[in-house]
Amino acid sequence: MAPATASPRSDPRDPTARWSDQVSLTPRILAVNVFALLLLGGGFFYLDSFRTRILDSRVDQVRREAGLMAEALATAPKAARPALLTRLARDTGARLQLLAPDDAVLLDSEQLGGPAFTLVDPRTDGLSQRAARWLDAGIDFIVRAPSSPTYDPARNGMPPDPDMARSTHALSATVWRAPDRTPVITAAAVLPNRSTILSTINARDITERVRVERYRLSLVVLTALLISVALSLFLARTIVDPLRRLARAAVRVRLGRAREVVVPRLPERRDEIGMLARALSDMSLALRARIDATEAFAADVTHELKNPLASLRSAVDVLARVDDRDAQARLLAIVADDVHRLDRLITDISEASRLDAQLSRAKFERIDLIAMIEGLLAQRNQRGSTRGIRLHLDLLPGAEVPVMAEGARLERVFDNLLDNALSFSPDGGIVSIAVRRIDHDVEVRVEDEGPGVPAEAREAIFRRFHSVRPSEEAFGKHSGLGLAIARTIVEAHQGSIAVESREDRLSGARFVVRLPIAERDDSA
Length: 524
Description:
alpha+beta; Beta-Lactamase; Helix Hairpins; Heat Shock Protein 90; five-stranded antiparallel beta sheet; five-stranded mixed beta sheet; 13 helices
């Protein structure tokens, strides 16, 4: 039993190999698409910077307004200041207080009938507002937003802005956080008599604006997320499910259930998965055909070996009980003939079984087909193996026909065809070889004057161990593998071989071998 080989692993230096080889395609597709949505969801954090810019702009606005109101109050008669303060409070929407140098309240717009300044009690808010505050707190925590002090005049007293404005003789502003997490802005400006104007505004509109934008963005992200997940699952199903079906079929083939497994071909798909499915299906069919051929070949080998073995066994059994020397000599001749048959049969079987693998590794070279055939005929004439049959070569004088081939194997093709033609030809007959160039191919015809091949047997004679021999030929002279070996070699050379009847005679067979001619640049 061959040792198990480890399956190739991804390069451990590849950072993606640490997780991509272990995670199914479905979560990976989902992760890629959801990651893009998470980038879109980063807009939530962009809204924090958007809020910061708006808040800074509002602080500058409140500070400038405080300065302008201080100038207006400084130039207004003392009796007109309450009415002016009330009107300014209504115009700005802020609570305005005029403070003495010791922070005593001289005027308060809220007490003068201006807009009331009331903070929202978060305990009275509904669930939606509470959820909005939790979301605000969560985002502030994630982005590490600076925390503003809590605005609580009842506990903390007067804001520090009036003191800062008097000490620096400049505008002062501070941002606070109301109990409902909305910003409160206080700003102070100094009048010439060292009294100060304090402006306090609860900028709920900033928080509401950010929350509205966040809500809209949430709807966009949620809609995109649902669509992305649905499309990802659809994409994963169209990719993963066929791959799983193919994997299950491949596993069953690997477990030895190839005959009962039907690998799905997915004919409706025209993408790479469809190409993979059809390739795997074709591969499994080829594997099944190869297994069937191997099993049939093994059965044929067993059958072919039994005949000479049975004859050999009978001869050996009888030889031990026969005393007559002539009978012993005849039995020994039978044993020798059977041993020769077995040797030839085993040699042909060995070559036929290893032929495909050897041809796949063969190095093809540019050779002259005519020179090869002439050399083969010269060798046969020297050996005297023509049995009185004349060999005739029909070709153009001085012609050269180059082909890309493995010389020894291709020579075996014509050697087998000559053996076949000589065995069927009568004594004194003619076996001719004709070489013709047809377009980009070369055609070699081997003709004999034998009985010919019936039309119904012209394909069967190229099968292994199929042999239709002349009646006068002794049994076992041929293994029935010669033509099968010839076809395997010719097809490995991208050629074809066939048999047909001769038109110029009433009998005789013509074997036609067709091979592609090597172009000039093939020799490079």
